[in-house]
Specification:
Length: 554
């Protein structure tokens, strides 16, 4: 089973296709939440000027934290540098203001996890660090999710992680058509978004110490599309030596992270055709003798359009505006780097299977109820409603094809309170839980691995949206509300503050040491830790998610 469902497939098709994009009265997009650090009213200038390799930057400071935003880590990829590998940022003189985040990378309208815009000058990062600069702090580089289509680093407020003792760096990188257009259409553009992230990691190695971080202890951390980016960094030889630990959230490396050349080329052809860049728009007139040989010996003229050469196609794309490129690419895609290239010789699955990956300690995890958000989202679409019991079997047959009878036998509607819950449970087990356990098994053969399952049942729902018809529980993205300050969700309940703090401590401790307070995953029946406000202990993961059933029906 090939896993391709990240946030755009469950969120875009469910929520954005209806309620969030064009139907319901949607709240303001969760753009940049840049929450004031504790004690922000008592600001000071001490420690707010830092000397980086390109020049000095001035940020902000509170009693506990310092923040630096909008620092360029690469040259603007505009003009001739559109679809070019990232180049070093130009140095500057004086002190550069670093109190506001840089522009999000160009992305379409459609999701509250995104910030729609056409700005291509976007290769910036943000640093949040403890106010005290004594000692060297572990560095966490946050790679935001959004299916490599949406989002920006500053949307995720990292103050809790920084207050716990980490230097946190969040990164903007090229998305969608700007970051992952097929290299056969535009030379070298197969995985520019990933190359941007690598440039940011080189910047971190060179500059972390200036912010109080340990440049020799860098953890890359990502969720969903960002998690697949972490999978790609594990597999890419060009990422070797750029990081020391990895955190993969809701992104099973065993079944995702790259696409084939054929898939990328088909995607590119669709865009080229939609823009009319496949045909020469100039009229090519050719004369032909009139077969009727009239007395004037007139010639008839025929007008044709010849297919563009590759160079003409690329030139057409390069002179196309960002707005038109985004429109042609559309909001419903799953771009990925291409496997079989110098950047990505192997897919993450093959790299993990053969041990040919960057071996660092890995924390990998999945949410217990990933697909509940997808099913619930359909209720918010125009004309949407809770799934009726009679709709369950057709939905299972559509999702699982010739395996449907077995799935219906394993997940009978009679065992669930609603059809929506039944479908979400089957989809979660098949598409998320099983491949994540496979990922942990592959990793643990070669490198220290910890696995968790986020299992909190009382999670925040999306801010400003109607209450769901059944509990969302640990749906896709829900763990982020406990690690970051994020406007997308309602507030975490006060009684969960201790649980939230424990999660933050766990992530920072892993960044510092590569360890957690539960055992490493070993063998085929390795330890999977449940993380919830009620339970912090070993999960019965194989039985709970019917692992053996799904492996028999692979």
């Amino acid at each position: 089973m090939r896993h391709t469902r990240s946030v755009s497939q469950w969120f875009v098709t469910a929520l954005a296709l209806g309620g969030l994009a064009w139907g319901l009265a949607a709240p303001e997009p969760a753009t940049a939440r840049t929450p004031a650090p504790a004690g922000a009213s008592k600001t000071r200038d001490i420690g707010t000027v830092v000397d980086t390799t390109a020049g000095k930057v001035r940020g902000t400071a509170s009693e506990r934290l310092r923040g630096f935003r909008g620092i360029p880590y690469a040259a603007p990829p505009v003009g001739e540098l559109r679809w070019a590998p990232p180049r070093p940022a130009a140095p500057w003189t004086g002190v550069r203001d670093a109190t506001s985040p840089g522009a999000p990378c160009a992305q379409p309208v459609g999701l509250p996890i995104g910030t729609p815009g056409e700005n291509e000058d976007c290769l910036h990062l943000n640093v949040t660090a403890p106010a005290r600069t004594d000692g060297k702090r572990p560095v966490i580089v946050w790679i935001h999710g959004g299916s490599l289509m949406y989002g920006s680093g500053d949307m995720y407020g990292p103050d809790r992680l920084a207050a716990e003792g980490a230097v946190v760096v969040s990164v903007n990188y090229r998305l969608g058509v700007m970051g992952f257009l097929s290299g056969t259409t535009v030379e070298g553009a197969d995985g520019l978004g990933l190359e941007d992230q690598q440039a940011a990691l080189r910047w971190v190695r060179a500059n972390a110490a200036a912010f109080g971080g340990d440049a020799r202890n860098v953890t890359i951390m990502g969720e969903s599309g960002g998690g697949y980016s972490v999978c790609d960094h594990l597999a890419s030889p060009r990422s070797a030596g750029l990081f020391d630990r990895a955190v993969v959230q809701s992104a099973p490396c065993a079944t995702g992270g790259t696409r084939t050349r054929a898939e990328a080329e088909a995607d590119a052809r669709r865009i080229v055709t939609a823009l009319g860049c496949d045909k020469n728009k100039n009229k090519n007139k050719s004369k032909s003798k009139n077969k009727n040989k009239n007395k004037n010996n007139a010639h008839s003229r025929s007008t044709t359009k010849k297919a563009n050469t590759p160079k003409e196609t690329e030139a057409c794309l390069r002179r196309t505006s960002a707005a038109d490129l985004l429109k042609a690419y559309g909001p419903f895609n799953e771009p990925r780097p291409v496997a079989g290239t110098e950047l990505m010789p192997l897919s993450p699955a093959e790299a993990l299977r053969t041990g040919r990956f960057n071996r660092v300690p890995v924390l990998v995890g999945v949410n217990h109820d990933e697909e509940r958000g997808s099913v619930l989202g359909r209720e918010l679409a125009p004309g949407g409603a809770p799934m009726e019991p009679e709709e369950y079997e057709p939905a299972v047959r559509q999702a699982f094809g010739d395996r449907a009878d077995d799935v219906l036998g394993r997940y009978p509607l009679s065992r669930f309170a609603s059809a929506g819950e039944a479908l979400a449970t089957a989809m979660t087990d098949a598409s998320w839980s099983v491949p994540t356990l496979d990922t942990a098994r592959l990793l643990s053969r070669w490198t220290p691995t910890r696995m968790y399952e986020f299992g909190e049942r009382d999670t925040p729902w999306f801010r400003g949206y109607p209450a769901p018809s059944f509990e969302q529980r640990a749906q896709h993205m829900s763990e982020l509300a406990y690690l970051f300050d994020l406007d997308l969700f309602q507030d975490v309940k006060p009684e969960q503050a201790g649980f939230r703090d424990r999660m933050v401590r766990t992530w920072v401790e892993f960044a510092a040491s590569g360890r957690t307070d539960w055992p490493a995953f070993r063998g085929t029946d390795g330890h999977v830790q449940t993380l919830s406000s009620d339970t912090w202990g070993r999960a019965d993961f194989v039985r709970d998610h019917h692992y053996r059933f799904w492996k028999r029906h692979h």
